[in-house]
Design a protein that fits this description.
Helicase, Ruva Protein, domain 3; six-stranded antiparallel barrel; 409 residues; alpha+beta
Length: 409
């Protein structure tokens, strides 16, 4: 007689758990509050679906900021190469882009969703959409079923909790998995936003709203000996800063929650060193002393940003190079290389790409994804205290842990 399995949450981890369980001769019921599977998966990569990263397993572990070593077994059981082969063998061609990011050739996340829908259907997984689980039922310290919101009960031999974190709550990630785990006496590591925009205290930041920079280096001093740095695109907003470099920086900062209100430094032109910028000003001054300082700056940075920097430094934006004092020239260069801002915490977790924190890995068997406290209870994906940088790593973690949970449940 087939074992019966309930998977709660039809995101990447839940989908893969349901597929691997069904392929290992189990009767599977996949439950989700949404009307379709993979709602969050559909919006990843700007709707293009950055499904994984074409790198080594060791690099995925290195890019995982919380409990990366816990993933060693899962990633070796179902690697990024296994995932790529699985998707392509089911009719969706993939491509590798900048920094190893993997996308469907079509640039359509729907094509990825269609692959999983087809495989779920072929494996006769029972889908219960628009359905909410109220609690996980236990008998003799072993999972025995789930109670639905309408009080109907589904009896089963095992349950996989793959409900995601707290980010994107409008897509169904509302922390249900933490409640289920907590009710069953599991410890929940403090929930924090990660890969999230950063609020800035300085009021003038709103004047830069909409300005974007292609390459910025962000640095925060953690202690006398430790600094964290991120480099990439940055966007100024009405509340602070966003963009890929900022999201990555927030992931590092979230590991040091005590410094959320801290000083950060923006190198607006990391591809120029101090001496090179001094040389630019010196040469321009020699050949055309009547040229406006603002004109020199706008060859390097957006016009509105240049105006604001000069305003902050109390330097007339219409001053000519020949009139600029050495002191003011140094002030401009120093500000470009280290614009100082004060963080005012992160944006709300509902704006985060992923959730940091979750069910403690100390209470999960990394070889099977089964709870060490409750027989028949398994966890997969973002609900666990694991989070990584952007680039397809978080999705790979979800698929790998979901695959292992599905095999073993």
């Amino acid at each position: 007689m087939k074992k019966k399995v309930v998977v709660i949450g039809a995101g990447p981890a839940g989908i893969m758990a349901a597929i691997s369980a069904a392929e290992h001769n189990k009767e599977v019921v996949l439950i989700d509050k949404n009307d379709h599977i993979g709602r969050k998966l559909r919006i990843t990569g700007g709707g293009r679906c950055n499904i994984t990263n074409n790198c080594s397993i060791n690099e995925i572990i290195e890019k995982t900021l919380s409990n990366g070593k816990f993933l060693y077994n899962s990633l070796n059981k179902f690697s990024n190469i296994n995932l790529i082969n699985f998707i392509e063998s089911n009719g969706c061609k993939l491509k590798v882009e900048h920094k190893g990011k993997v996308f469907p050739v079509s640039d359509k996340s729907d094509d990825i969703i269609n692959v999983f829908s087809k495989v779920l259907n072929n494996n006769e997984v029972i889908l219960k959409m628009n359905c909410e689980v109220k609690e996980v039922l236990v008998s003799d310290n072993k999972v025995s079923g789930v109670r639905l919101q309408d009080n109907n009960i589904i009896r089963c031999d095992g349950v996989v909790i793959s409900t995601g974190g707290m980010s994107y709550p409008h897509l169904g990630s509302t922390g249900d998995g933490y409640r289920f785990a907590s009710d069953l006496e599991h410890n929940i590591v403090k929930i924090r936003p990660s890969l999230v925009p950063i609020n800035i205290k300085e009021k003038w930041i709103k004047d830069l709203m909409g300005i974007s920079l292609n390459s910025v280096k962000i640095t925060t001093k953690i202690s006398n000996k430790k600094k964290i740095s991120s480099k990439g695109d940055l966007l100024f907003t009405h509340y602070g800063i966003s963009g890929p470099a900022v999201l990555e920086h927030s992931a590092y900062l979230s590991q040091y929650s005590e410094i959320l209100e801290s000083t950060i430094h923006l190198d607006l032109l990391p591809n120029y060193n101090q001496e090179e910028l001094e040389q630019i000003f010196h040469q321009e001054s020699q050949f055309n002393g009547s040229k406006l300082v603002k004109t020199v700056l706008t060859d390097l940075l957006p016009k509105n940003l240049c105006s604001k920097l000069l305003d902050l430094l109390n330097i007339d934006e219409y001053i000519k190079l020949g009139q600029l004092s050495k002191k003011d020239r140094n002030k401009i260069i120093n500000t470009i290389k280290s614009l100082t801002l004060t963080t005012n915490g992160f944006r709300h977790i509902k704006e985060a790409i992923v959730t940091s924190g979750g069910i403690s890995v100390k209470e999960i068997d990394s070889k099977t994804m089964e709870s060490k406290l409750m027989k028949g209870l398994y966890f997969a994906g973002e609900v666990i205290d694991i989070d990584a940088l952007t680039g397809g790593y978080n999705l790979q973690i979800a698929f790998s842990t979901g695959y292992v949970a599905g095999i073993n449940v």
